[in-house]
User: Fold M17 family metallopeptidase from Novosphingobium soli.
Amino acid sequence: MSDKNALVQPDRGQKAVSIHLVDKDGLDKFRKGLAVPQRAALEAHRFDASAYEYAIIPEDDGWAVVAGVADAAALSSWCMAKLAEKLPTGTYRRVGGEPGPAAFGWITGQYTFDRYKAEPEEEGPRVLLTAEPAAIEALTAEAEAVMLVRDLVNTPAEDMGPAQLEAEAENLHRAFRAEIRVTRGDVLERDFPMVHAVGRAAGRAHAPRMIELEWGDPRHPRVAIVGKGVCFDSGGLDVKPGSGMLLMKKDMGGAAHALALARLVMAAALPVRLHVLVPAVENAISGNAFRPGDILRSRAGISVEIGNTDAEGRLILGDALARASEAGPELVIDFATLTGAARVAVGPDLPALFARYDATAAALLTAGAEHDDPCWRLPLHEGYREYLKSDIADINNAGSSGFAGASTAALFLDRFVADGIDWAHFDTFAWRPAAKPGRPKGGDALGLRAAWHMLQARYAAKDG
Assistant:
């Protein structure tokens, strides 16, 4: 991931191109304040202050930018992102106010993934100035966390397997002196049997593992973050069609979110005892692949009948959630690219949110709305538990009905979280099928900022 620290800098009066942000309500007043040549240039552009529209006008001995926004008094994260993508290399300053949250999109709008290009496009940075330098570090850390998710998800499975996810966890271990523990091999079969069963067919090259990090003062509230790390999903013996595998490099998107959120927590020294769990596997096909109809034992002692080998993510998360519960956390948050049903229900932009407690759900929804990372709550409806019944085991991993697929998957996970623990589950897409300002096509963080700002609001005042 390229270093974006220079993209937002303190305003010390350096020379910069002016950016005027104008909404439709303020357009007439803005026009009246312009000189005749400037007004003529604006008219030539047919500028009407629509969101993401911009025009170049003369100013003094140079030029300035006039950009349309939905509301000049309440900027969004993305309202200046198109400028960051399209304007020439240089330094820019908003006139008449600070960029505020728009500085986040200014950074993420300049993200590129060019790891595999022989001749990457070489463009200099577009720098935005702010008179609020104290906000730069936190804002940049948040943008870098989002771009970390993008980098990890965009990387093909051959270069982003279980070992590479372990390497990312090692980076956090070294950077923040976190404790790390990785379970693999025969011990994995004993301690995390469902992780082993799902990942064993991938062989030594992509051997399964459970990756755990612990960080922070043990006296602080314990928080667990869990991420689904299926680095490629063939569907197993219930094999996907070729078209269904095209995006399966992103099936470790939950792990990417968990690692990025952990980085934010550690970098901000949030007063929590953090436990990060990433079950990392490839769901492959070979002679020892687990089969439809198999009964798997789990770390929690719950027996699971396999109704579909392509419902593997919930299996590895079951072992991870059971392990997280054993330490008695106050809160567990998991991220997973879990179901197509969630995408049918809420589309690609909204992660489906499930939570045991209304207050936690409300806090996550509010944080997402306030920080341009909206989520949508779906139900943990008790009546749907019957869809997971098995005649010969405690539970089936695939619902018996075609209904409520996202809810039944969440209810499966709920069985592995100990009673009384505050738990929230994000069924996220981790992918953007079409580009939007500040959000290029490809891997993306959906639910990350909502979770991060909820954690800040919940724990930042509890230090000491």
Remarks:
- The domain at 5-131 is CATH 3.40.220.10 (Leucine Aminopeptidase, subunit E; domain 1).
- The chain has a mean pLDDT of 96.
- Residues 136-154 form the longest helix (19 residues).
